[in-house]
Amino acid sequence: MDVLLGILIPFLGTVIGSFLVFFMKDKIQNKLEKFLLGFASGVMIAASVWSLLIPAINMSGKWVSPSFGFLAGILFLTIIDKITNKCDEPSMLFFAVTLHNLPEGMAVGVIFAAFLAHSIGVTLASAYALAIGIAIQNFPEGAIISLPMKASGQSKIKSFIYGVLSGVVEPIGAFLTICLTNIVVPILPFMLAFAAGAMIYVVVEELIPKIHEKERNSLGILGVALGFTIMMVLDITLG
Q1: Is 193 exposed, middle or buried (0-12, 13-18, 19+ CB in 10 A)?
Q2: Residue 197 domain-assigned?
Q3: Minimal CB count within 10 Å: which of 39, 153, 198, 217?
Q4: Domain interval for residue 150
Q5: Looking at 14-77, which runs of residues are DSSP E strands?
Q6: In whole angstroms, what separates CA 109 from the centre of its chain?
Q7: Is residue 156 included in any domain, yes or no?
Q8: How far apart are the first and last CA of the chain?
Q9: Which pTM was predicted?
Q10: Would you say 137 and 13 are in contact if contact means Cβ atoms under 8 Å apart?
């Protein structure tokens, strides 16, 4: 029961963040949209570095697997983008954040698997600490899925559901990792870096250009700075 609750905690963070869409006005102002796009960009850049690339490098101890994983993530999303003939920006956001959430869920699965195996230094409290830290990180990530969905014309219910669905992969990934620890753990650095590449692709290809559409102002870069700083602080203090 303790393990089940632990792997569900990060998903709860995504759900709460997605719920913010119900407090959003029917039509989002252009300046607010630019700020939110910038904020989403900052969150995703920081998460790519501290939540994904740095852990991937630390796990592998080498640069090979993280480097190839990062490039593979960018190449994969480039191909998907071409095949689907340019997905709209909210759809690409959903896809990238979902990819990012899968290895995060696997990371939670790894630490709970270590706890179940009575590994030295891994306690139930430390496993819960990681799960709660990821849940707090997931709060803005749930919001950056549901809010742009609503801004693009989707209903609040549908936008909320998309936000929730982006986080469903976390408990699934955690559960599978616990069941298949010996198979999953060796490829986790590659998967973490793969997700980072996918997120950076979305930032560069979709979000940043969207910020500079129509009128130019400083709200976008302010959003990037705030989103990056918040996510960096969360990752460092809770990671």
Answers
A1: buried
A2: yes
A3: 153
A4: 2-19+62-206
A5: none
A6: 16
A7: yes
A8: 24
A9: 0.71
A10: yes
